[in-house]
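Late entry, evening session. Most of the bench is empty. Finally got around to the prediction I had been postponing all week. Sequence below, unchanged from the version circulated by S.P.
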Amino acid sequence: MNTWFTARPAGWLGKVPEIALSFWIIKIMSTTVGETGADFLAVRVGLGLVATSLLMAALLAAALWLQLRARRYTPWIYWLTVVLVSVVGTQITDLLTDGLGVSLYLSTSVFFVALMAIFFVWHRVEHTLSIHDIVTRRRELFYWAAILCTFALGTAAGDLATEALGLGFARGAAVFGVLIAMTCAAWRLGGNAVLTFWVGYIMTRPFGASLGDLLTQARADGGLGMGTAWTSALFLAVIVLLVAAAQIGMDSGARSEVSE
């Protein structure tokens, strides 16, 4: 078997960030940027769904290449990849719904089954779904496949709740926010850490998508009318500041280790 996938590369350190409050803040904001950024490029800039999807897929491939080549968690590479995965996940769902006319009920079901299949194969092969055990490239590939699927599933589920089921943007964001809070409470009360992490990770996508729509859509459609350009720029600025702080902290820590 190819050891590129199964062996731990020399000098390999943790490739994902610590799960702290800043992780969830950046994650939620990246999901919102995925929703608003995709709409901005496809509609406001006028690239259209297909061109936007191809462009973002190419950028995601480049970011994933950098991420897979890295020997340790590098904040700017990791979060750049997450933001691009968010945009591509949104585009996949939009292409199916708007481009091919696939029902949101069907796309949500298909993405759910696909994600469960990824988790099943991942656990069957590696015997763990913990992100703290990603110590080979094969596990990292399983991880990013699952991440992409969670974004596509979250987009479809969010649109299903807010549009097809008629919850609207504000109530949709509130419902998914409550589900995230319940998941956090379950973890605090002793629930399985791996299970609650993945449930929370999936739920942040429809929450972020509903929040993005609430902020950007016109008031007549139930939104606040901020527009995709301003919302994307604001959230990206916060993400950049948080990631820059993490990168500076990591670089300072590395220099301290070298000096010692």
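Two things to note before I forget:
The first helix runs from residue 3 to 6.
The mean pLDDT is 84.
Will write this up properly tomorrow.
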